[in-house]
Design brief:
By secondary structure, this protein is an alpha/beta fold. The protein has helices spanning about 10-15, 20-30, 45-60, 75-85, 95-105, 155-170, 190-195, 200-205, 230-250, 260-270, 285-290, 310-315, 325-340, 385-405, and strands at about 5-10, 35-40, 60-65, 90, 120, 125, 135-140, 145-150, 175-185, 210-215, 220-225, 250-255, 275-280, 300-305, 345-350, 360-370, 375-385.
């Protein structure tokens, strides 16, 4: 089956916005065994959109259109789809009522221009959007089935998984169950992970597809499989998942939709613990990941953010603690527990090389973790420029705390360290 992804929007066409929606849609299609034949980007122009729709209608079997479903004048997908189909736009009463109810629940009156989002080409099939006001829809143009999705990433992603992929799989005749298993790790690159997982029979015989996606500081290892039934899929994937966990070991931070910060908070909550932290140079990266989560209530006690270790020491009543060292990190971690009453203290102290930002510029990271049993420390040097040092230090700090809480080695070397 020939599938085209057609993304709309001037901001995409001009490069002002990076088109991550396309990469996500294409990746999900491939993961379930469907192939992308064409990818098209069109600006917010009626004639250009109409031409793109008509071309796609002649060469593709299915077209996923992303974007252009909003309430403003430059959102043109419904109008141009109706023009291409030779039908009128009609109000979808059911969707209009859902939009009004959503606004009512928020204590707001729906603006008049939002009515536009419930206007669909006559005869269109509504595609549900459970978390937004822009419904999707499907129409047949020429010989292709067009499926329209909103440009908001979180809305699009859910609709692709729950609504679009099942329709495409049915069209393709692939009457099977698919699953994507994801492992998130820190400290190993793609080449090392590939080497660590080599020789697993399911990858060689093609029953399970192995893939990687690197988004520093994490690496995502993906297992994709298809079977006739869910039970058969479990039988295929279970031993492979177990083997991946065994081989990647402590490098695995979490799985599927879990996050590192969520794992840390859960481990603390399970033992009735709490956390106070101090971080330098990270722009509050660690605190900003922990504090907003619902699980942080009652667990995350305090966060101190500064560019200067002396200011952190002064805030904790530590006289003379200025140098970035593992000894200072341990002292800060202990003081965090004492001053906040938290069961665990985490200090992530960083000193960055001077000079212009460049790939060989690095930073020294000193981590201290304190609890009732004492303190543990970790020192590392990362290269790659200021952003890589900042992101890597935040990830390393949280990972060291995760490892400590789970009884794993805190000082296991990672690929990103300078030896």
């Amino acid at each position: 089956m020939r599938i085209e992804i057609l993304c709309t929007g001037d901001e995409i066409l001009t490069g002002k916005t990076i088109n991550t929606n396309y990469s996500h849609i294409a990746r999900r299609l491939v993961e379930v065994g469907l192939n992308v034949t064409w990818g098209t980007t069109v600006g917010d122009d009626r004639e250009s959109l109409l031409t793109a729709f008509r071309q796609a209608a002649e060469r593709a079997d299915a077209v996923i259109v992303n974007g252009g479903l909003g309430p403003t004048v430059d959102d043109l997908s419904q109008e141009v789809a109706a023009q291409a189909a030779g039908v009128e736009l009609v109000l979808n009463e059911a969707w209009f009522a859902r939009m009004e109810e959503r606004y009512r629940q928020r204590g707001r009156v729906m603006p008049p221009n939002n009515v536009k989002q419930a206007m669909l080409p006559a005869g269109a099939e509504l595609i549900d959007n459970p978390i937004g006001t822009a419904c999707g829809f499907a129409v047949t143009l020429g010989k292709a089935r067009f499926m329209f999705t909103p440009g908001v990433p979180r809305e699009m992603r859910r609709m692709i998984d729950e609504q679009v992929l099942p329709r495409l799989l049915k069209m393709s005749g692939l009457q099977s169950v698919t699953r994507l298993k994801r492992f998130h790790s820190f400290g190993i690159g793609e080449s090392r992970a590939d080497e660590m997982l080599s020789g697993i029979p399911a990858f060689a015989d093609g029953s399970v597809k192995l893939g990687f996606q690197s988004h520093y500081p994490q690496l995502e290892t993906k297992l994709a499989a298809r079977a006739a039934t869910a039970a058969e899929l479990d039988r295929i994937l279970a031993p492979v998942e177990a083997e991946v966990r065994s081989r990647l070991g402590a490098f695995i931070l979490c799985e599927d939709n879990e996050t590192l910060e969520g794992v840390v908070l859960a481990a603390l909550a399970e033992r009735g613990g709490s956390l106070a932290l101090a971080e330098t140079f990270t722009s509050g990266n660690i605190a900003s990941r922990l504090a907003p989560l619902p699980a942080a209530e009652g667990v995350f006690r305090r966060g101190i953010v500064s560019r200067d270790t002396r200011e952190i020491a002064a805030a904790l009543g530590l006289a003379g603690e200025a140098a970035v060292s593992v000894e200072t990190a341990a002292a800060v971690a202990r003081a965090l527990c004492e001053t906040s009453g938290a069961s665990h203290g985490l200090a992530v102290l960083i000193t960055v090389d001077s000079g212009d930002d460049r790939t060989e510029l690095g930073g020294d990271i000193c981590i201290g973790i304190a609890d009732a049993d004492g303190t543990v420390t970790r020192r590392a040097r990362l290269l790659g420029g200021r952003d890589w040092v900042r992101m890597g230090a935040g990830e390393m700090g949280l990972d060291c705390l995760r490892r400590h809480l789970l009884g794993l080695p805190v000082d296991e070397r990672i690929d990103f360290e300078k030896r």
